[in-house]
Amino acid sequence: MPVTSVFAAPGDEDNYRWQSAPSEQLRAQLTIKEAILRAFARNPKIAQAAAQIRVGKANLTEAESAWFPQVSLQGNLGRSHRTDSAGSLNNNGSGGVTLKQLLYDFGKTGGSIDEQHNLSDAWRYDLYSTLNDVGMQTLQAYLQVKRYQALAQAARANIHSLQSVLEMADLRSEAGLSSESDGLQAQSRIAGMNASLAQYEAQMHSAQAALSVLTGVKSETLPDLPEDLLKQNISIESLPYDRNNAVLSAQSKQQAAEQRIRQAQAQHWPTISVQAGRTRYENDQSSYWDDQVQLVVDAPLYQGGAVSARVDAAQGDRANAQAEVEASKLDINQRAATAWADFTGAQLRQKAGDAQAMSAGRARGVYRDEYRLSKRSLNDLLSIEQDVFQADTASITARYDAWDAAVRYAAAADNLLDMLGIERSRTVGDDLPAL
Questions:
Q1: Strand pairing report for 25-26 and 217-218
Q2: Side-chain half-sphere CA neighbours of 337 within 13 A
Q3: Which of 97, 95, 65, 74 is nearest to 276 (CA)?
């Protein structure tokens, strides 16, 4: 039995296809800006946020439509009987047009319009915040690739240095100045470094796969990040909450909740409108027109507590929205504080690693000269080679930890994309950046 017949109806085998994986392409170089823009194009969260903006625009248009004249047609076919002081009248059908214009409703429609304005702002801020999050995620994947590329390069350099040590050991063994075990020790150390190199390359390929899923591009050449990220004023004392899109979104939702309270409270008051209509009635004896122009006042007297319940619910929404504003500020503060601590710690570790690498590099040259003069053993030489490699890897790890912390801080402060020259709001205000 074909596999497709288990899932598809008979006759649909030719049309049935498994879901294909997202396409990827190879490029000689992938710049930071291009990586982020391509991630924007592929990330479904951004498409969802953009779609929500369109929903908000439609809801705003619907709310504003209440101030426009409402025109309707009505008609019916069938026998009806009407009795009044003038007698009785049988109608076989009627048809007409009605025009209704809202005059004043004590804030019901105005509150609805203001609510949708605030929600539209919130959805736009949500889109900008999502762009910021996707940009941070992409840069972190980008940095992971460069981290393991640098570690793999350090491992190759150490292997090359160990091979020169092996050559010295072999020459001394051939000259009878040392035993053959020196060469075996060097070969063992080289084999261990080859294993480390294989591990770094595997981690690099894994990081490249993660980046290619985000961007749709696989590239071996990734330029460095701009130094401005490391030079930004990192501080947790003066975070720009007033310019953070996550906070602005929460505040807009709070303002929308306040407008819902206004709408609910307005339900206690009447709605005033004017209505005009012209209806044609058909009966067995004759036909006639019924014209009307009326001032309509719709004033609810008692609804079983429904209006008060709506007010209470709206006030609960406002309290929830206020808490969301504070929660977004707390989240930003926590992310910024963690990034600040990681950044300062990584910078100190990098300085220590650089100093260790410089010291170990000088010692390596001295040890090699002393080994040639039989004043040092091969174990001393291999030990200093290990020290050099550990210092290099410590410095590389600290450097990319600092980059990652700088990216996370810029994302928490919501100026990451601005520092990279990527505009989130352009001519219209909610257009997505394009390649």
A1: parallel
A2: 7
A3: 97
In a domain, 281, yes or no: no
Average pLDDT, the chain: 83
Q: Rounding to the nearest 10 degrees, give the CA dihedral for residues 296, 301, 304, 309.
A: 80
- Structural domain total, the chain: 1
Name the most confidently modeled range: 137-141, 276-280, 373-377, 416-420.
137-141
Long-range (24+ apart) CB contacts under 8 A made by 162-166 are 162/186, 162/189, 162/190, 162/193, 162/382, 162/385, 163/190, 165/368, 165/378, 165/381, 165/382, 165/385, 166/190
**Residue 103 near residue 68, CB atoms below 8 Å:** no
Nearest to 128, CA basis, from 302, 20, 249, 276: 249
Q: How far is Cα 319 from Cα 254, in angstroms, rounded to an integer?
A: 8
- Determine the pLDDT at residue 334: 92
In a domain, 53, yes or no: yes
141-189 pLDDT, tens digit per residue, is: 999 999 999 999 999 999 998 888 888 877 776 666 666 677 778 888 8
14 and 206 Cβ atoms separated by less than 8 Å: no
73 part of a folded domain: no
pLDDT the model gives residue 251: 93
The residue range of the domain holding 193 is: 34-67+111-266+323-419
Q: Which domain CATH number covers 249?
A: 1.20.1600.10
> What's the token pair of residue 323?
């808490």
For residue 359, tell me if it sits in a domain: yes
> What's the rounded mean pLDDT across residues 259-266?
90
| pLDDT computed for residue 179 by the predictor | 64
Structure tokens given for 253: 């939702």
Rounded Cα–Cα distance for residues 217 and 220 (Å): 10
In angstroms, the first-to-last Cα distance of the chain is 47
Look at residue 389 and give its three-state secondary structure. helix
pLDDT tens-digit profile of 391-423?
999 999 999 999 999 999 999 988 888 888 888
Cα 293 to chain centroid distance, Å, stands at 55
Nearest to residue 322, comparing CAs of 333, 310, 330, 311?
Answer: 330
The model's pTM is 0.81
